[in-house]
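Dear support,

Our group has been running a series of protein-ligand predictions, and this particular one with adenosine-5'-triphosphate is the one our PI (initials K.S.) wants archived with full inputs and outputs. We had some confusion internally about which version of the output was final, so please treat the block below as the authoritative record. The input we submitted was:
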Amino acid sequence: MTGYAVSARDVSVRFGDTRAVDEVSLEFAAGEIHGLLGRNGSGKTTLLSTFAALRRPAAGRVLVDGEDPFENERVMEGVCLIRESGDVLELAKIPENLRYFANARPTWDADFADELVDAFELDRRKPVNRLSRGQQSAFGAVVGLASRAPLTVFDEVYLGMDAPSRYRFYDLLLADYVEHPRTIILSSHLISEVERLFAGVAILEEGRVLLAEDADTLRSRGTAVTGPSAAVDTATAGLTVLSTRELGRTKQVTVYGDLDEAALAAARAADLEIDAVPVQDLFVHLTNREPS
Ligand SMILES: Nc1ncnc2c1ncn2[C@@H]1O[C@H](COP(=O)(O)OP(=O)(O)OP(=O)(O)O)[C@@H](O)[C@H]1O
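Confirmed final output from the archive:
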């Protein structure tokens, strides 16, 4: 499989009294797109920094492609972490940045980088720090994508982008991943937008792992029931409701957990639609708060 596997084993990182990452054990399989989710301050950025050797765990081990990434030139050449701040040469213009990354990254694709700069309509004549916030985020995305690093990590990189740019990013990422499979980890609050990309999802809460499983298993933890309001209410009575949406006389109720056989049979008899639940709804339920 192409791409680096990442393994965190009992990893802890502390800032003074704050346990930013607290005995986290997670496996990110090689060659897949993973989502790392969690509320603000749950430890996502801190954990991701250990994968890129920007921080050393106080305890536990991080292995990237089977090795400790810290001061490990071979592994680090293949790791690209892009944070919201961009992780680029801010005072330099885009062409100078592209030359720099072409030298620094063995897997860099210069033609693809140029295509991406055009796709995001970025002005090559301005220093990066003179681009708008959204354009700077888009340039971070360009660098992350064109690096084609065996481990590419996007930490909230698309937060500054407007919706059309974000969707362009998701589409470009998916298309390029299909052509050049590698390990990609995305952290995001915009779960409903990115969840279709994920093969696996891990959720952190207060520095600990709340859940880690493949995205389909996570989706199957809930059930969406859609149909005429009264019939949907009957089918979901007494269950844990995650969300309710109404459109005219049609209602969709998402519940946590499976419907039992009798409820399923009744729902089918009433011609209700039964589907998996959006990860966003499960996330809100599991972390008990609207993501910001
Ligand atoms: N340099 C630092 N010094 C002190 N505390 C820090 C530092 N960086 C992070 N923390 C603390 O560690 C915890 C985890 O922060 P982290 O940035 O990893 O969370 P996050 O999940 O990425 O949050 P967000 O979604 O808001 O970006 C928070 O309580 C934060 O206040």
